[in-house]
Amino acid sequence: QRRDMGKPVHGQSDMNVVRSNFDDSLRVFRETVRRSAFVAFDAEFSGLFANANLGPRRFDSHEQRYRKLRTSVSGFLPLQIGLCAFSCDPTSSRLIAHPFNFYVYPRPFDHIQRRFLSDCGSMDFLASHNFDFNKLFHEGVNYLSRAQRAECLAQKATNHVTATVMPLERFEDVKLVASLEHTIRTWLRSSKKSTLLLGPYTEWQRRLLQQHLQHRLQDLPLLFTESQVDSSLEARNMANINVMRFNSFASRAPHFEALKRKENESYLNRLSNAYGFTHVVDALIESGKPITGHNMVFDLLQLYDKFIGPLPESSIEFKRHVSSLFPAIFDTKHITSRHEHIASMFRFTGLGSIYKALRSVQPALSISLAPEADRYGRSTEFQHEAGFDAYMTGCAFASLANVASNVAIDATNLSAKVLPDPSPTFANSSSLFPGHVNKIMWNFSDESFDLDDLTQQSIRDDFFHLTRLPKDISLDQLKCSLAAKYGLIEAFEAPNRSAVIQILDRDKIEVFVSDLKDGILELGSLGSLGATRYDESIAILQRENQIVEPEAVSTSS
Known about the structure:
Elements: H1 2-6, E1 16-17, H2 22-34, E2 38-45, H3 62-75, E3 78-88, E4 95-103, H4 120-128, H5 133-139, H6 146-157, H7 160-163, H8 171-190, E5 195-201, H9 203-216, E6 222-227, H10 231-234, E7 239-245, H11 249-275, H12 278-287, E8 291-293, H13 297-307, H14 315-325, E9 329-331, H15 332-338, H16 351-358, E10 367-369, H17 386-404, E11 439-441, E12 448-450, E13 463-467, H18 475-486, E14 489-494, E15 498-503, H19 509-515, E16 520-522, E17 528-533, H20 534-543
Parallel strand pairs: 1-4, 2-8, 4-10, 8-9
Antiparallel strand pairs: 2-3, 3-4, 5-7, 6-7, 11-12, 13-15, 13-17, 14-15, 16-17
């Protein structure tokens, strides 16, 4: 039974997925995710923040955070995507992990051309963890988003793709078209052969030539087709142009209709190939299975932006769309940081740290790797390979579910835990982590990004904007001056000799407010400081155009 559960149908031989084995891996993935309990997700990117202004700040609202991320995400690419499906063995309490490590890289298709940003630090980080850039650029799986595919189909339906004549911009192209028109007209006058062979030409040349020759010779009953060449030229995407002559347009008609049907079938096949990795995303969505990630806000936004469509302008619309696609999302960073019983068990909540800590739970949850992923079980040296990180995330999620399903949790030393039931059920995963379903961790924030709450507002009553600061005061000095009366303080530099502070002890907020007299705070040696609630202050600054909205920040290099 273990052998049957561990080996996917069709026999996936390598968890690294590139163009050459994508079709087989897609079939395996569809079957594996269909019978899985949940799927873990991770990705590696060409960068995170388009510039320093788009990084997170503690005093950003939910909408500000979303809009900043939206701007950055649109510029960067996912380079490697890890998906790990976890299946339950019905004969035991064992879980079987099936990791897939996809290299993804978009290529041009018809009118769709894509450019992307790369961050030197991110690329260097990937290189230091043995990322195979040759495999990415030469063999990465192509993709179009759902929106891009719909756009291509709409254009094809209106014959826009074939009706748009490519301009003749280069002299050599003008000369070539004129020469071939002359050749065809000469052949029609002086030869009785039914077919004229031209070429070979590249795909771009064939499209250019056929469009202009058909336009110039549209009064003649001709038919343009293509024929293959020898393998060495075919590898360079070369082919011949065949010009067929007919006695009349009526005799050409059935051949013309057959050619159109063949071209349409060919186009749909090319479109399906170009759609590429999005077939995987579709399978994930159609399965309706819970998905889990770690600190996954970037992963989720990239997943939507690259494979569904452009990110909506507002966080409300994003939430509405994502919730319809993925009904149950779990962020292990959120669980290990915010769960009322579990959070105290972890000193560090990085993925590697919680994976290592949870392996010490006794009795440990039994998780086996599918045979083709055996190397993941021998070492942790594959960290920051997306497939391995997805595997670690899924293991962490399953182990956390194991912990959460046992309510007697009062110890803070995770290694000393003794849990009676190592086989949590994932049939109703939301019951395992009530209060954590569809809640994503915001970095540098005490709040969560709640995908189910369309009316979510940021609670920032603990933030205040201080102005009229002495010229030579540092943030540390400011915090020390405030801490004596108002407890632990966070401070952030702001323009024009001002700062934003956060009062971390909520009991001290009312004390601070009561000390404000007409917007003035008397602070001993620091003198009289201007002080307003941050939300009030930010509204004033926006009206005075002193704050630039994130969308206005350029991401061009």
